[in-house]
Task: structure prediction
Amino acid sequence: MNPLRYAERLLSIRPRSEKEIRERMERKGYSPQEIEKTVNHFKNIGLLDDREFAKWWFEERKGERGIFAIKMELKRKGVSDEIIDEVVSGDEREFIKKALEKAERKYKNLPERERKRKIREYLLRRGFSWDVIQEVTEWTP
Result:
């Protein structure tokens, strides 16, 4: 498959970071020259932009993950620390509520003590900070 068409297909599914495109193209066996040419093409036309990708990723994930988890995901996807710090901001309390509601529905039939423990563990696994979890749940440990 033509390298431009392959990258275009990947980008049509969802926004991607530059690192993601490079890795996927390497796995498909494209040469370093083809990869570089393709990446430069899509950067020049504005379809491959790590800052825009990070903004999109943050908006998609902020109701499901904590700030720490989102930052780590973006780092694994090759986004620079500078861009991550610029894009990932805000008060975790604003978007922990969606994850809390999901956890409460998931564990609603458990005994109270176990339900509270499970909800806290669920939120911790999703990268929310312990201080925010305690504040939002307002339970004693």
The mean pLDDT is 91. Residues 92-137 form one domain.
